[in-house]
């Protein structure tokens, strides 16, 4: 495993493999299997009109993986990725998995304070970012990051007006390098499924976000476990207006949809009118959102002027949704609603549509995996009695064992037997 990361102990590796949680697949192989199964079906739609089938995603991710290798990037090299919800994010995400490079899943709002830290900490070799977005010029940020972290040798821009002489993501995607370089090169760099596939970010409540290593094995299993909870099908269309790099839309949206043959619809704007028109046009069936946005929908006078009848499932997360609002939302959308609780570190709880009404109204449901171990402990680490307040600690087949290059923090963030500690509840 990449130096600076905490691996699972051998006994837990054996346990999770024997239980069938870890299948020994890579994220790139997951995509290729989906393409083989669902080939011509539409997989990803951008709000700028870009549309990719499953076959397109395989072809473009293979192509871009070769491009990354041609640039001199090698397995385990880290790449800063800071994009909006554009369709091109998806082939890039899987291309990095195929090339063995490790994306740092940054957010569009991050600036030099965060991006410089990520670049220095990971010794990143490349940086993928927009030319500009939402009134901000990212080119200056890229130059400042390179000054702070000289390891960043390649800057790849998304946009039609990339600076002269710079690399363009769209140009790399358009160049049929596979006609010059054999795809067999990808087999030579296939990553170990136990290796880090990507870095997610912690909530950052103690300063700059910490980096969360997620492996191919645990990240695929995270999504596969969610499919036992979420009623997705080939006819599902998942709307992603939450930043796509977030853990939640990747595991519960992008990867789960691809496993089932559904479609992911990407919105770059949270503007309600824009989102509602996109729901109408693409016949969105799954609508994930935070409570504040759901409340804005309910209070928006234009809400009932749009045809939102395609929506079958609302998923609320990130903060508590008041119980009295849930029936109102289900009535307004004529759809079912479930609440979820989770973190990029791993552990997820989801309500099931089959849960009793009181559970769906008052709780965030149950853990998604039989391998999840959940405890509430006091300040001495002892389990508290039922009904008492304690600190949530968890352990399982998709929950990290340590933050990246954070040994001092890991001493206080994890119990001696590997449980992750979160917060007082």
Concise account of the structure shown:
It contains 15 helices and 21 strands.
Top keywords for this entry?
425 residues; alpha/beta; five-stranded parallel β-sheet; five-stranded mixed β-sheet
Summarize the SSE layout with pairings.
Elements lengths: L9 H9 L8 H12 L3 E5 L4 E3 H17 L7 E4 L7 H11 L2 E4 L6 H11 L3 E5 L1 E2 L2 E2 H11 L5 E5 L8 E2 H6 L9 H5 L7 E6 L9 E5 H11 L10 E4 L6 H14 L2 E4 L5 H11 L3 E4 L1 H9 L13 E4 L8 H9 L2 E7 L5 E3 L6 H6 L3 E2 L5 E5 L13 E5 L11 H7 L6 E5 L1
Parallel strand pairs: 1-13, 3-4, 3-5, 5-8, 8-9, 12-13, 14-15, 15-16
Antiparallel strand pairs: 1-2, 6-7, 10-11, 16-17, 17-18, 19-20, 20-21
Helix pairs in contact: 2-3, 2-4, 3-4, 5-6, 9-10
Written description of the protein model:
With about 425 residues, the chain is of the alpha/beta class. The chain has helices at about 10-20, 25-40, 55-70, 90-100, 110-120, 140-150, 170-175, 185-190, 215-225, 245-260, 270-280, 290-300, 325-335, 355-360, 405-415; strands spanning about 40-45, 50-55, 80, 100-105, 125-130, 130-135, 135, 155-160, 165-170, 195-200, 210-215, 235-240, 265, 285-290, 315, 335-340, 350, 365, 375, 390-395, 420-425. Helix 2 (about 25-40) packs antiparallel against helix 3 (about 55-70) and helix 5 (about 110-120) crosses helix 6 (about 140-150). The mean pLDDT is about 95.
């Amino acid at each position: 495993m990449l130096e600076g990361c905490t691996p699972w102990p051998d006994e837990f590796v054996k346990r999770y493999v024997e239980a069938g949680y870890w299948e020994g697949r890579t994220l790139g192989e997951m995509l290729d299997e989906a393409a083989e199964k669902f080939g011509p079906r539409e997989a990803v739609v951008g709000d700028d009109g870009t549309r990719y089938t499953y076959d397109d995603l395989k072809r473009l991710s293979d192509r871009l993986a070769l491009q990354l290798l041609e640039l001199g990037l090698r397995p385990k090299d880290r790449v800063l990725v800071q994009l909006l919800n554009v369709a091109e994010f998806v082939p890039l995400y899987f291309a990095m998995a195929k090339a063995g490079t490790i994306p740092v899943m940054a957010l569009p709002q991050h600036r030099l304070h965060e991006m410089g830290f990520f670049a220095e900490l990971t010794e990143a070799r490349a940086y993928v970012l927009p030319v500009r977005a939402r009134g901000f010029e990212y080119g200056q940020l890229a130059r400042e990051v390179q000054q702070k972290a000289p390891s960043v040798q390649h800057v790849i821009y998304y946009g039609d007006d990339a600076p002269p002489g710079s690399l363009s993501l769209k140009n790399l995607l358009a160049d049929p390098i596979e006609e010059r370089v054999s795809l067999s090169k990808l087999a030579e760099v296939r990553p170990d499924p136990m290796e880090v596939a990507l870095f997610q970010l912690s909530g950052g409540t103690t300063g700059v976000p910490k980096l969360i290593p997620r492996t191919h094995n645990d990240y695929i299993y995270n999504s596969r476990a969610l499919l036992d909870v979420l009623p997705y099908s080939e006819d599902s269309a998942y709307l992603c207006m939450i930043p796509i790099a977030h853990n939640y839309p990747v595991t519960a949206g992008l990867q789960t949809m691809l496993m089932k043959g559904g479609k992911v619809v990407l919105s770059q704007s949270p503007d309600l009118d824009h989102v509602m028109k996109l729901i109408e046009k693409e016949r969105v069936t799954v609508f994930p959102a935070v409570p504040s946005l759901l409340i804005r929908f309910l209070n928006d006078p234009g809400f009932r002027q749009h045809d939102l009848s395609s929506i079958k499932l609302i998923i609320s997360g990130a903060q508590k949704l008041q119980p009295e609002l849930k029936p109102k939302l289900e009535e307004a959308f004529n759809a079912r609603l479930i609440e979820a609780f989770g973190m990029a570190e791993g552990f997820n709880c989801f309500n099931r549509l089959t849960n009793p009404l009181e559970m769906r109204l008052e709780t965030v449901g149950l853990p998604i995996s039989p391998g999840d171990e959940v405890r509430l402990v006091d300040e001495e680490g002892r389990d508290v009695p039922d009904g008492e307040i304690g600190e949530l600690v968890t352990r399982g087949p998709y929950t990290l064992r340590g933050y990246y290059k954070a040994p001092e923090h890991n001493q206080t963030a994890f119990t001696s037997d590997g449980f992750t500690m979160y917060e007082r509840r």
